[in-house]
Design a protein that fits this description.
The protein has 337 residues and is α/β, with parallel strands linked by helices. Helices cover 29% and strands 19% of the residues. The chain contains eleven helices and 16 strands. The chain has an eleven-stranded mixed sheet, sandwiched between helices. A five-stranded parallel sheet has the order 14-13-15-12-16, sandwiched between helices. A hairpin with a 6-residue loop joins strand 9 and strand 10. Helix 1 crosses helix 6 and helix 10 runs parallel beside helix 11. The structure holds adenosine monophosphate (AMP) and magnesium ion. The site of magnesium ion (MG) has 3 residues, from loops.
Length: 337
């Protein structure tokens, strides 16, 4: 299949592809999404094929007007309304009981649906010209999510109908996912909207175990996507937990040329092996924005092992931690003080 590269002026062509049941990669403020008409089960099934995504991992439905949510869910409770008012349009996904408009391909057989109202103007325009769009990240399943046009082309060229160019994504990690379909609100995936921000608007929000820890064997995932190894470059990623001194001592011994350190800007002066910079130490927004690019860069440079300094878990740092620990397959080495 030839994949068209379309510019914003050609968005009507992209909408037509969607209306005809095709697949279009579109920019959003989080990462690039691979979109299909969310009400067309056959079109949605193609997304799983193009990505190599397991069929039991449900998709997020993207809307361009608040009123559209009412058709997708059975109820829109007060807490959902408050969250929508505070954070939509923006990088927050809310899970609610689904209506019968949602095909099984979208919800992977669950009784719920994940809904997001993105803020990116191109995504919003594409939705308004076609329909609500089911869209996971536009990468091959398991690899780091795409935050630039080049990333999408690398993974999806020849596998989908078109890519809409939208430059670089601003947030850089996927949306925050909260479920309101459980007794108490629960954070399933951290992202650009923080746990602290959610609690400030609706009070108690539980943190799902799978955000920080590997799923216990045999346990059921609240969010099917959390059970898979994710975001992984080909290089082996290992997290190092410890002080800056301990981190530097450890990595500076790894002088085989095939090993790189993933570190904070402040640490670069003292690193003696190849390194990749995540961002400034407390600058979680930049870290989130750069993370997936940097993981892809590790492969482009041919590193076999990447030792990453373990991120903090406050604010947007929780999203960075959640993605790196999955990229590392939960492999963490504790360093002595
Ligand atoms: P992605 O589309 O790749 O950004 O991933 C979407 C994430 O949301 C995955 O982790 C899914 O498992 C999760 N998700 C989507 N829909 C639901 C749902 N109805 N219930 C629980 N998790 C969901
Ligand atoms: Mg994804």
């Amino acid at each position: 299949m030839k994949t068209l590269l379309l510019q914003e002026e050609q968005i009507e062509q992209a909408a037509e592809i969607i209306r005809n049941g095709g697949l279009v990669a579109m920019p959003t403020e989080t990462v690039y999404g691979l979109a299909a008409d969310a009400t067309n089960g056959k079109a949605v099934a193609k997304i799983f094929q193009a990505k190599g995504r397991p069929m039991d991992n449900p998709l997020i439905v993207h809307i361009s007007e608040l009123s559209q949510v009412r058709e997708l869910v059975r109820e829109f409770p007060e807490k959902a309304q408050k969250l929508a008012q505070a954070f939509w349009p923006g990088p927050l996904t809310i899970i609610l009981p689904k209506s019968d408009k949602i095909p099984d391909e979208v919800s992977a057989g669950l009784d719920t649906v994940a809904v997001r109202f993105p803020s990116h103007p191109i995504a919003r325009k594409l939705i308004s010209l076609s329909s609500p769009l089911a869209a996971p990240s536009a990468n091959l399943s398991g690899s780091p999510s795409p935050t630039t046009l080049r990333h999408v082309q690398k993974d999806m060229d020849g596998r989908i109908d078109a890519i809409l160019d939208g430059g670089e994504c601003s947030v850089g990690v996927e949306s925050t996912v909260i479920t309101l379909a459980t007794e108490k609100p629960r954070l399933l995936r951290p992202g650009g909207i923080t746990l602290e921000q959610l609690r400030a608007v609706i009070g108690e929000v539980l943190l799902d175990d799978a955000v920080l820890h590997p799923l216990k064997s045999g346990a059921q995932a609240s969010s099917p996507g959390m059970k898979y190894k994710h975001y992984s470059p080909k290089a082996d990623v290992i997290l190092l937990k410890g002080t800056e001194d301990a981190f530097l001592r450890f990595v500076n011994q790894k002088t085989d040329g095939k090993t790189a350190a993933l570190c904070y800007r402040e640490e670069t002066e003292r690193i003696q092996i190849p390194y990749l910079v995540l961002g400034g130490k407390g600058d979680y927004e930049t870290q989130a924005n750069r993370l997936f690019s940097v993981l892809r860069e590790a492969d482009e440079k041919g590193y076999e092992t990447v030792y990453a300094h373990c991120p903090e878990t406050e604010g947007v740092g929780l999203a960075v931690y959640n993605r790196i620990i999955r990229a590392a397959g939960f492999e963490v080495i504790g360093l002595e003080k």
